[in-house]
Amino acid sequence: MRTLKKYAAPLLFLAIFEAVAVALWRAKGNAFYLWNFSYIGCFLALGLTLYIRRFRYARHVVQLGVGLYMLVYLGLICRENMQIEGFWYYLSLGSFEAATIHYAVAKIFGPLIFGRGWCGYACWTAMVLDFLPYKHPAGPRRELGWIRYIAFFLSLIFVGALFLLPVGNLERILFVSFIAGNALYYAAGIALAICFQDNRAFCKYVCPVTVFLKPMSRHALLRMRVDADRCIGCGKCGRVCPMEVDVCDPSRSRKNGTECILCLECADSCPTKAIHL
Predict the structure, then answer these.
(1) In a 10 Å sphere around its CB, with 0-12 CB exposed, 13-18 middle and 19+ buried, how is residue 172 labelled?
(2) Across the chain, how many H-helices and E-strands are there?
(3) pTM for the model
């Protein structure tokens, strides 16, 4: 019973993704969904298991496993635009396929369960940014969150223009935009990280996907919690949090509360082990 409780989180993630995999497989009649969501669920469960077993790079294992799968296999090989413009495009076609299902599960409804866990364990942009040396913000947070809304609406305008203007071969244009968009994201993310000495500056200020993630994450089932009886108020959790979340505040309106990526840095740094998922 103690072992089962210890591994409850990885088992929960595996069960959730397996349920989605089977449901979509049966509903769509396509074995791809069984493979796709089983693969992601297994990697998430593996990463959490490695973390429980104190493997230092557990989260990076998941980031590389899922991020490269999404970027290389689905994006470059299968030519599915998994960026936000791909979501708008397939949604406009009324196609409930790879990109639209991905957004529904990982970025629109899924965050009601795991918040912004996608950002911490599966994002192929953050997969690269998290290897930069600026793991903890060097200065105060900037008031630049408005940039994400510009990026969000630009992606919508871009897709709208594809349908309104007399252009052909939209699938090819969308594939090229996937490559160009990722190159732009990486360039902007690295530049912002160096400029602000903060690996996650792109996530905080520019990433358009956070427009979906933030409101749902506010009601997430899985969130970092603090045992008030064990907390000594040392502030280490706040200093190591890459997203600058006030972990010690138990309310859902806590500072940067919708930004938590479940990286578990706060739990690792806590000297009294008062923080848990």
Answers:
(1) exposed
(2) 15, 2
(3) 0.88
